Amino acid sequence: MRGLIGKMGGHSNWPEWIYVGIVIALMTWVGAEAWEAERLVEHVPEDAETIIVTGQQWFWTFEHEDGTVEMNDLHVEVGKAYKFEIVATDVIHSFNIHDYVVLMDAVPGRVNTVWFAPDAPGVHDIQCREYCGLIHYNMRGTLYVEEPSS
Amino acid sequence: MVLELQKPRPIWQIMFSTHHTDVGLLYLIMSLGFLFLGGTLALAIRAELFLPGAQIITDSMTFNRIFTVHGTTLIFLFILPFASAVGNYYVPIMVRYKDMAYPKLNAIAFWMIPPSGALIWLGFADFTWYATPPYSVISAPGPAADMWIFGLKILGISSVLGAINFIVTILKCKHPDMSIGQVPLLAWSFLSSSLIILVAIPTFAAALLMLLTDRLGVSGFFNPAMGGDPIAYAHLFWFTFHPEVYVLVIPAIGMMYEIIPRFSRKPIYSYNSGIFAFVLLSIVGFSSWAHHMFATGMSFTEKTVFMIGTLAAVPASAMHVFNFIATMWNGRIKFSTPMMWSVGGIALFFGAGAGGVVNSAMPLDFSTHDTYWVVGHFHLFVMGTIAFGSIGFLYYMFPYVTGRMYNEAMGKVHFFLSFIGTILVFFTQHVLGLYGMPRRVFDYPPIPEWIAMNQIATIGAMIIGVSMAVFLYNIIYSSGKGELANTDDPFGLGGKYYFPFEAKNPSH
């Protein structure tokens, strides 16, 4: 083994340093792009309507600003921005509308916020993405994006 | 090396031995046993998910228990003990010492694992390997959950004892003629991973105690109803278990450092960069734990810090890949079974790392977090890199342990089936995650893309299952009836890269 190691000294390592430099440059680029995108995504519009989302074993409750309460179904309108205030009453859940990349944990004792602005009418799945027990697999809801009524 | 099975000894002589190769053999046999047990659970999970609706598992509680025990078993009862087996066999020989520094402690560390394995398997808890509160505090059924907590507690102590033993053996017991800069990279990998264990494990040990007292109702550290914060558990857990990922992967990379130069018949490209990357990885590994928690409501600044910490680990991992490729470059490579597993493992390591960059980029993480993408991603590490490196090393050790050769054709069949299966299962799961399928679900809605990808993954898992049956037959048959190995040079590489020293085993 010592013979093996003894042969190692002396040769130049410049290909490795170039390679490491390229990897560092790539990671810096990925990080900078991600930072820039996340900074934009996190900025909640001023006029966003608030919807309080409550996760509990094993269903979702949505409370609109006007006091309407929906269970598992959520109706929103195209062209408006919505801010979800996400809470949980028992264990941790994760509120997810995959088609709009909306994902935020519902943590008991905390209020987490995330926002989105639907851009086309349609029907999308709502699901729980954090393990919450027996019926976690079926803690699902439906998002209805509708044309503005007025 | 020592031939274990050529001169049969009564089993109690091995069981009550404190010699490093005997303890290594015990670790080896036990970890392989748990590999097959945990793998069987994986096949049950995949069979269940072949179609939406209940297939072979009738209720979701059983399914949740199965994936919890599957993960716990393969991480703590296969990967870690397997690494300890390799370390026990090789580290004392590599540092030219007669045994581990503390032989009795070594045996104690081993004998703590079977009871904890029994606690985990007899309890069969359901709260995932992450045991997240408040679910694990207020909702998870006991006594399974409490048995799991005690099992992990014992395993943690065993890991710490093993780590102390490796560190002292390498730093204090190495031959006086040998400087630390001459210790082979496999031993360096054990030094790095043991140091990580010493720093990381106590945090989780504390969290487990708090979890237990929370479950007993006497405290409320993680229970919001009593003023606690479940996110605190997440921090404590991931502060241990993100570095733990490196505890698992670093020995596997060390094993590849042992195999690749030998089978390329060339010295390692850069020994120093290997050490540098190990040490860097062990330090940087501590700066990235909360990238598992981007969706828990962290602030923008916190997310940025942990994204940078995560990306900082990439160059160190990439240095290993570079080192392997540069070593193989222009080598007279002999693709025996151990080399195939190592090279396959490197390819999948690259795939796993590339996927990890996607996870760590903040906005993309919200698309992949807690979906099957993550399942595919970390399985490419634990199966594709760590298990591939470990199984390759098992084939490499086989003639030294048994004195006989495994069947080379069966070894290659095992590799090709496993490699194809791994790609089918885990690359497909990445895509499935992008389609939004959550992890840890017993059932899923009949979305055609989800069904198709789950079926591809299940077929891949069955291919891996077949390959593992070939493997089991090969090791059992060959250790009794295989061809006698030429222990000076079992792989016909010319011999000059082998260890010139024999372990001194008092029982022989």
CATH superfamily placement of chain B = Cytochrome c oxidase-like, subunit I domain
Please state the second-level CATH architecture of the largest domain in chain A: Sandwich
Structure classification of chain B: mainly alpha
Distance between the termini of chain A: 81 Å
Number of helical segments of chain A? 2
Strand order of the largest sheet of chain A: 3-2-1-5-8
Portion in strands of chain A? 35-45%
Order of helices and strands of chain A: HHEEEEEEEEEE
Main β-sheet description of chain A? 5 strands, mixed
- Overall shape of chain A: it is elongated
Average pLDDT of chain A: 89
Give the number of DSSP strands of chain A: 10
- State the CATH superfamily name of the largest domain in chain A: Cupredoxins -  blue copper proteins
Instruction: Look at the structure and give the CATH class of chain B.
Output: Mainly Alpha
Proportion of residues in extended strands of chain B: under 5%
Q: What oligomeric state is this?
A: heterodimer
**Rough outline of chain B:** globular
In percent, how helical is the residue content of chain B?
Answer: 55-70%
Largest sheet geometry of chain B: none
Instruction: Report how far the terminal alpha carbons of chain B are from each other.
Output: 12 Å
Kindly provide the name of the CATH class of the largest domain in chain A: Mainly Beta
